[in-house]
Every structure is written in C-alpha cells, then in structure tokens.
Amino acid sequence: MYSPGLQISRITIVALLILGVLWVLRPFLSPLLTALIIVVATWLPYSWLVRQLGNRKALAAAIMTLLLTVLILIPTFFLGGQVTKAATILVETLKDRFQGGIGEPPAWLLTLPLVGEHIKAYWDHLLNDAGSGAELLQRIYDPAKRLITSIASGVVNGVLQILLAIFIAFFAYRDGQQWSMWLRNAARRLSGDIGTHMVDVAGKTILGVMVGILGTAAAQGLVAYIGFKIAGVPNAGLLGAATFLTSMLPAGPVLIWLGAAYWLYDQSLTGWAIFMVIWGAAGISSVDNVVRPVLIAHTASLPFLLIALGTFGGIIAFGFVGIFIGPTLLALAVAMTNQWLNHRNTITHSERL
Is 76 helix (H, G, I), strand (E, B) or coil? Predict the structure, then answer.
C-alpha cells in the first residue's frame, strides 16, 4: 500500500546519504574529477593496451598510470619547482632593492612616449625624498611577497592534487567498465533511454573538449619550444611547458614569448628579439586558430568565452587542476542541455503530429 510518509522518509534517507557521501569526498573532489576526465579522455589507448596485454587490466592500468606520471606529473613537478625557485629569487631581489633604495630608473622606461617625462619627474621625487621612496617600496614589497608565496603554495598544492588524481586514475582504469555499467544502469533507472543517451553524450563531450584543449596546448607548447631553441633562449623546455599550461588562459602564451623577446632584447640580441616576436605572433599564437577547430570540429565545440570562463572559474573553485575541470564541466553542461532541449522538441513535435 502506498504511503506518502514512507515515500518521504525514503527520499530523505537517500538525500542524506548523498550529502554524507559528498561531504566525505569533498577534500578529494578535485583530484577525483581530474582523474575521471583523464581516464575518459584516454580510454581508447587504455582499451588498446588491454587487448595487447591479453586482457590483463591491472597491468594495463599500471602502465597507463606510469605514462601519466611521466607526461603530466614530472613536468608539472619540475615547472612547480622552477616557479618556486623564481619566486624566492624575486622576493630576495625585491628585499635587496628595498634595503638599497630604488636607485636609478631603467633608461628604456624614461623613453616611453607620453608618460616617460612624468615617470622621470616622479622618480626624481622619490630619489630626493627618502621617506616617499621607502614607503613606495614597502607597499610594493609586502603584497608582492604575499602574492608570490601564494603562487608557490598553489603550485605545490596543484602537484599534490595531480599526484592523487593519477593514483585514483589507476583504479578508474582497472574498474572503469564496472563503473560505466553502474552509471548507465543508474541513468536508465532515473530517466530511461534518455538517461543512457546523456551518459554517452557526456563521454563524447569530455573526450572532445580534452582533445581540443590539450591538443591545442600541446601544439602551442611544441611550437614555442622550437622557437625558444632556435633563438637560444635558456630553459626552452621549461618555457615550452609554461606555454602549454598558459595556453588555456586568454593571451597566456603571449606573456611567455613576449617575456622571452624582451630577454633577448635586454641581451642586445635585437635581431633574435624581432624573430621571437614574429614567431610568437605568427606561429605560437596562431596555432590556436588552426588546431583547435580541427580537433573539436567533429566532437564537442565550446566557444572561446566559455573556455576562458571555465578555466578561470575552475582555477578559483578547484585550484590548479581546475584548468582541466572547469572547461570540461561547462562543455558537459552545454552539451547535455542541448541534448535535453532537442529531446523535448522531438517529443513536442511528435505529440503535435
């Protein structure tokens, strides 16, 4: 016999159970989502590897985990170490500058059109008034120290999250078919065939977005690395990795190759600096306009604005790994909303007929 009170009790118990599970998994939500996205995006290579190894899933999962460690964790760890080292050097430089006074301004700064004379006048005022100069340096040094320390801490946290994500990925590879079967059954119980269709759409969307974003990032990182090596920029591998990571941010790679061009100019290598600017504008930054549409044309297309919002929002919400999580979640929401609207329109059209 149907009892409204019993039904409400069951719904309440299930809701509390779901909330409890989410509360327990809350500290691991970022690496868990990252692991699932990576596994879905690399499932085809894993499946091929399983067949080659005679259906030994655990061994195939271990090999894929090792590959993820080599391709993702080690470069991220290296880049994080370099960023932390650079942050320490910058803080010490600011400290030395604070103790020794502001000194003379760079010559190029005074030659800037329109503002050069105003900068010179203000700088002379700071040189003549020791109190004003010290106050300005103090205002710059303290926030810069906090910002750099925060960046270094975020990098370390990101490396730890990626390490945990790779650990989770091993089990996701090994038991992925069981997890997929459970998810499809749950979706079918909730909303019938449209539920299983949504699961398929989710998988294709994740694959398309990851291929589009990471493929474009890898292409830009490779082109940047080649340009840095040709121009003789030191730490070309590190700068290529930085280009790969910042390619998901608007104008991110521009900051890298412009910085390299300025370093070349500062070393009196004007010709190579001009080459770096041309290579960056015509090569590195143009890759995004060519590679991304080709990669995601037949999978999942996401407007650049949503990619940017997803990247920044993902970083704020999930930390470093939000670079991957944010755009993927937005693309998934857009794709599933479109599928739901198309399904509703199909039903309405059928009812009218």
Answer: helix
342 alpha-carbon distance from chain centroid: 31
Structural contact between residues 276 and 227, judged by C-beta atoms closer than 8 angstroms: yes
* CA atoms of 148 and 290, how far apart (whole Å): 35
Q: Are 221 and 253 in contact (CB under 8 A)?
A: no
**Residue partners of 339: CB distance under 8 A and separation at least 6:** 197, 198, 201
> Among residues 174, 207, 239, which one ends one of the domains?
174
Does one domain contain both 342 and 198? yes
Run of H or E including 313: helix 304-318
Q: Determine contact, residues 216/287, Cβ cutoff 8 Å.
A: yes
Are 33 and 161 members of one domain? yes
Residue type, 287: V
Q: Which of 56, 86, 328 is nearest to 204 (CA)?
A: 328
Identify the three-state secondary structure at position 55. Answer: coil
The parent domain of residue 312 ranges over 175-353
> Which residues are CB-neighbours of 64 under 8 A, at least 6 positions away?
42, 45, 46, 49, 169, 170, 173
Q: H helices of the chain, where?
A: 4-25, 29-41, 43-52, 57-68, 74-100, 107-110, 116-128, 130-174, 176-191, 193-231, 236-246, 252-266, 270-279, 285-296, 304-318, 322-352
Query: What is each CA distance from 272 to 25, 109, 227, 281, in whole angstroms?
Result: 51, 21, 10, 14
Report the chain's terminal Cα–Cα distance, integer Å.
Answer: 38
Interval 66-82: pLDDT, tens: 988 887 777 677 766 66
Within 10 angstroms of residue 298's Cβ, the number of other Cβ atoms is: 9
Domain end among 156, 174, 192: 174
Query: Is-contact 162 34, C-beta < 8 A?
Result: yes
Output the furthest CA–CA distance in the chain (Å, rounded). Answer: 91
Q: What is the pLDDT of residues 111-147, one digit of tens each?
A: 766 667 777 777 776 666 655 556 666 666 667 667 6
Nearest to 280 by CA among 340, 238, 230: 230
pTM of the entire predicted model: 0.65
Q: Please give the helix or strand (H or E) that residue 80 lies within, else none.
A: helix 74-100
Q: Are residues 92 and 213 both part of a single domain?
A: no
